Amino acid sequence: MSATSGTVALVQGTTALTCLTTADCAADPRVRDLVGYGSATVREGSPTAAPSNTTSAARATLTDTDDNATDFTTGTPTPVNTKGETSGGDAGGTPAKIHDIQGTTRLSPLAGKKVTGVTGIVTALRTFGSARGFWMTDPRPDADPRTSEGVLVFTGSTTPAVAVGDAVTVSGTVTEYYPDGRANSTYQSTTEITGPKWTVQSSGNPLPAATPITPATVPGALAPQPGGNIEGLPLEPAKYSLDFWESHEGEVVSVLDAGVVGPSTEYNEIYVTTKPRENRTDRGGTVYTGYDTPNTGILKIESLIPFAQRPFPQADTGDTLAGPTSGPVEYDSFGGYTLQATVLGEVKDGGIQREVTRRQSPSELAVATYNVENLSAVDDQEKFDQLAHGIVDSLASPDIVTLEEIQDNNGAEGEGDGVVAADQTLRRFTDAIVAAGGPRYEWRQIDPREGMDGGEPGGNIRVGLLFNPRRVSFVDRPGGDATTAVSVVRERGKPHLSVSPGRVDPGNAAWANSRKPLAGEFVFHGHTVFVIANHFNSKGGDQPTHGRYQPPARSSEVQRGQQAQVLRGFVDQLLAADPWADVIVAGDLNDYQFSPALRTLTAGGALTDQIDRLPADERYSYVYEGNSQVLDHILTSRALRWVDYDVVHINAEFAEQASDHDPQIIRYRPTR
After folding, report:
1. Nearest CA to 460 among 412, 397, 521?
2. Angle in degrees, 0-180, between the axes of helices 423-435 and 381-389, rounded to the nearest 10
């Protein structure tokens, strides 16, 4: 055929066509499809580009748009036989083994180059989504522990026509894939063979043995700490955990009776530990204790088993994936190195229960904090009911509750629509609490300016205060709004708030695109109590702990540090007016008890972080990537003596959650 222009028709039948125009060919019922290329006049839509002696025109998409230029593309011919085999190994390129491709650092020495004659046994397939492909392993490894013998052959949205146990010979281009697609990514990359061609040499071959992961297998140190990019450093798999996993990238590993330390998520993932004694909580989790003490036993599990064949398991922290779980190792932006399971253990119930705290006595003031995770009036009633039962049943109806992540009345559905009020959201919540058997709470909050407080776009997130008017009185002082700063005033020698509720220095740059603290003045049994609800800026923008920059930069700490200074300044004003004022600082501070922000708040003993009073293995209110950690806090001034404090675990450890945070509560008897 001509290499410059022409038309090819797919017809039903063997009678020669006589149509000479696009319209006539379209009217011929025998013509099922056609493609015109080059300068062809008979075509669908616009013609596709002309091929040449070394290229072909092939479908670019399975959707027929009736426009040849859209539906077809020119490129290297990719013939496939009836077995699904391609033209295979010799398409030009450097002959290579898998360990040559993987190399001794995180980046392939052959990245960007074509390779040919790459042999291995197919160990696993991914047959769904847009990242399909197969993993293969060379059954004849070299002697270097740094070089992986496994690799992913990436086929995109096409299911590869291979089977586990096939011996294949592959050619293609070696590519370093970053999960966010950016050249300046902070994540690590996955070494892949892209644009592959392969031939199946034989089938039914025995699989290379999986690497067993035991409690002693993975090193305790995370990674070298050069203060920069570690990609070019030689791997030390016996010394660093990230190096260990990189040296097994693409290979099949197995874990036996793995303990679940992070519950199943909506993204069909579970976090387990390969080190069951590593910073273990009494509920089966793994506590995060410091920047320099990472939990290297944590491993994320996903599944390559089609969900129609086996639904992804629902597991809580403390459960066990009983039996073997095995599959190839792949890097992901969430959780880092991941076992893509082809064999998945059965969930064995670990027996943890949702906790219930005790009820406060008549003389005790109970103050709780609860992040209700983007609650808005458009949420399903089920979420309101679950949160309400948490308030009534699990927290025993506290007298005061600071709320974080209250959204406006139409939540994220109304970005830029001018709606900032949250009265419908709070009305539905307080109604649900009554329906759950709790008191009729009142609320106080201040509407933010639209789009100025961060959080989910359109949600106009804010903090708020609930209180039981039968137990505690709120001191209302008018004038508080989104931009007016609350100050400390003295009346009869005692401190009070200039506006109540009032926002703490809302115009300060520290609160840019972040929630502003809300201060409220309460009276309990004749005692004045100041409660400040908080939600500091998130950790968004921090480099991942498992990324290619070590140690990772925690850029978000800067703003939280500034926020802590502003908040501490306001607390200092209260305490300067009365060193024995009852001050409670509560909320989601988005930082750890050992962080600079918390050190600012607790410096000099002005405030006590109640989480520090718990045993180390109980210091958590949130589970992220398998780490049980602290983001929520209740801090108290020195006037609050003999505080009874409790983190009530009802969400973070469970696959079914009303929120991703656990609430906290204090009870104390005011003495002045």
Report:
1. 412
2. 60
What's the residue count for the chain? 672
- Span 598-652, pLDDT tens digits: 999 999 999 999 999 999 999 999 999 999 999 999 999 999 999 999 999 999 9
Q: Of the candidates 297, 345, 352, which has an alpha carbon nearest to the alpha carbon of residue 286?
A: 297
∠ CA(511), CA(513), CA(517), 5° rounding? 40
Could you tell me what percentage of the chain is helix, strand and coil, using 3-state DSSP and rounding each to the nearest 5?
Answer: 15, 35, 55
| Residue 213 and residue 131 in contact, taking contact as beta carbons nearer than 8 Å | no
Residues 622 and 597: their CA atoms lie apart, in Å, by 18
Predicted local confidence at residue 89, as pLDDT = 44
Whole-number pLDDT of residue 61: 63
**What does pTM read for this prediction?**
0.86
Helix (H) or strand (E) holding 575: helix 557-577
Q: What is the pLDDT of residue 73?
A: 80
**Phi, psi dihedral angles at 446 (to 5 degrees):** -130, 125
Largest Cα span, the chain: 106
Of 12-21, 159-168, 347-356, 525-534, the poorest mean pLDDT is in: 12-21
Q: What single-letter amino acid sits at 49?
A: A
On average, the pLDDT of the chain sits at 95
- Whether 347 and 320 have beta carbons less than 8 Å apart is answered as yes
Chain CA centroid to CA 456, Å: 15
Whether residue 635 contacts residue 604, with contact meaning beta carbons closer than 8 Å, is answered with no
CA–CA separation, 95 and 532 (whole Å): 66
Those residues whose C-beta lies under 8 Å from the C-beta of residue 480, and which sit 6 or more positions away, are 446, 486, 499, 500, 501, 502, 503
Q: Tell me the C-alpha to C-alpha distance, in Å, between residue 531 and each of 399, 503, 633, 636.
A: 12, 12, 13, 10
